Amino acid sequence: MPAPELTDRLNKQIGNEFSASQQYVAMAVHYDAKTLPQLAGFFYRQAVEERNHAMMLVQYLLDSGGEPRIPEVPAPRSDYGDVVEPVGVALEQERTVTGQIDELMRAAREAQDYASEEFILWFVKEQVEEVSTMSDLLAVAERCRDDVMELEEYVAREQGGGAEDTTAPPAAGGAL
């Protein structure tokens, strides 16, 4: 069983992941309303991925004898000045999540909880990918600011969804 402080941090991260999921839904809806289906689809997929991250944390706590708690999450931001701004917000969100995951890793190491450290390590690797993806998307979005259809084409070509990560921890209820 994870130490009580680590269990509390894991439960807080469940909320952080659900909050990220909701933020991505709001971004997807923003793009959907602007008839930008590639960007909308990309952010809808990101929302599902973040939801699944929360459910992986839930499953880990269930498997390890911890008590998962589903916290309330704040309302997401839904107003943006242009088509580039949500991508910048997404990159900052991923950087914030990276810091949260780093804190979880530090707490697991300090507690000498090697099982939790091994579990959290997958999220460390995942965050490298997430920050890289959003950094690339923001760079392209800024270049395509005046031609959003070029951005749509980039997303269709480069971010159309990939293969399932077979190294991912199991998610409670199964991944959707």
What does this structure look like?
The protein is mainly alpha-helical. It has one domain (4-70, 80-158): Ferritin (Up-down Bundle), CATH 1.20.1260.10. Helices cover 71% and strands 0% of the residues. The chain has helices spanning 4-33, 37-64, 85-110, 114-143, 148-158. It is elongated, with a radius of gyration of 17 Å.
- Unreliable spans: none
Tell me, what's the shape? Answer: elongated
Indicate how many domains the architecture comprises: 1
Please give the radius of gyration in angstroms.
Answer: 17 Å
How much helical structure, as a percent, in the residues? over 70%
Q: How large is the count of helical segments?
A: 5
Order of helices and strands: HHHHH
Mean of residue pLDDT? Answer: 93
Our measurement of the CA-to-CA distance between the termini, rounded to an integer number of angstroms, reads: 27 Å
Q: Please give the CATH class.
A: Mainly Alpha
Care to count the β-strands? 0
Biggest sheet details: none
* Structural class based on helices, strands and sheet pairing: mainly alpha
Summary, kept brief:
71% of the residues lie in helices and 0% in strands. It is mostly helical and 176 residues long.
